Structure prediction request, 399 residues.
Amino acid sequence: MPDTTGAASAHTRPGEGAIPLWLPRNIFESEHEMFRDSVRRFIAAEMLPDYPKWEEAGMAPREIWAKAGAAGLLGTSIPAAHGGAEAGFVYDSIVIEELGRAGASGPSFDLHSYIVAPFLIKFGNDEQKQRWLPGMADGTTISSVAMTEPDSGSDLAAVRTTAIRKGDRYIVNGSKIFITNGIVGDLCLLVVKTDMALGAKGVSLLLVDTKSPGYTKSRNLKKIGNKAQDTAVLYFDDLEVPVENRLGGENEGWRLLMSGLVQERLIVAVRAVATCEAALEQTIAYTKERKAFGKRVFDFQNTRFTLADLVTEVQIARTFMDRCITLHAEGECDMRTAAMAKLSTTELQQKVLDACLQLHGGNGYMWEYWIARQWADARVHRIYAGTNEIMKELIGRTL
Ligand SMILES: Cc1cc2nc3c(=O)[nH]c(=O)nc-3n(C[C@H](O)[C@H](O)[C@H](O)COP(=O)(O)OP(=O)(O)OC[C@H]3O[C@@H](n4cnc5c(N)ncnc54)[C@H](O)[C@@H]3O)c2cc1C
Prediction:
């Protein structure tokens, strides 16, 4: 039977005999495990049954955001005073891991809760926090962050969207591309140039209500994976943004953006390792059921050698990631370590998913199989949150 959900294998331990497949993890307490259980049940009950429909539609409906908010998935790090649980990065990681294990790449709760919300939490003033964070925690305000432009992605300092101040407003003109949650989003953290002459030092961040006149949500781009999350092209045509919607000071945006990069890279890495574990668990189970030439596919030496290599590498990655999660929860993970995590785990993820797909034979190429969708979804992990080439640059510079 094809496993189209990924749920069947969640947290099973297919290693036969006395040795469990993975080493026990020691970064969680019993409260964490209870929360994990509730997240897993929410995903299985509320997301996976409709997931294929969302993939076909190219986005998930708004209602799932409100349900996720009510179930406590969106506000793990949002302060209690603003409707969240104020629980910290270990809890964030649990949500990301469970979404990764289930193969639920859409809607992009990750970007909303762990990339946009932290900017508001760290740099928003009281009025901004009170205005936006409660809705972000309960899922009634969906957020996006718009940095990338048609002519500048890796080279973020080259953005050309301008915000010219006129009295108590900024007049914004330009466009953005590849914006996750860009179609469903209500709030956009927009990266603009308030001084074109200053390069990176002329960048500012604006909190924009996406219903404002002059803000156009254009196409929902068709992608090779992550199909249940929307990815938009945006246009701004004399869009007026009140000065009080600026996050941080004028021309201070670059510093703020840089401070978010550690977390942005870690969340991609957290998801990558969780997906690798689930993929190996499923593939071990599959190859033990599937027969060829009168024996189990698992019994071919090639299968066991392939799986042995990958399980070993993923176990090492898990150990490193747990260290990163703990470090970041304590505010101690540095830029290089986060880049190493993102680089190594997403390269490994591609390798693991490709090998696991191969071990599924033709079934592995079929969209109804979990492994096929994971293979397609994973590809972007080497591209966004800074490409892996940029990760190597960053690591290299520090040596
Ligand atoms: C599905 C998806 C969702 C996304 N979501 C968002 C979002 O929500 N918000 C947002 O702002 N952006 C988003 N992005 C954009 C993403 O962050 C960029 O695509 C990424 O940063 C790469 O930029 P680019 O596409 O312009 O590639 P380019 O910068 O044009 O890179 C092309 C190639 O050149 C290489 N390269 C570039 N510079 C160097 C260098 N210095 N040294 C060596 N190699 C280099 C790159 O590694 C890459 O291989 C998303 C992208 C995708 C695909």
Summary: The longest strand covers residues 169-180. The longest helix spans residues 261-289. The radius of gyration is 21 Å.
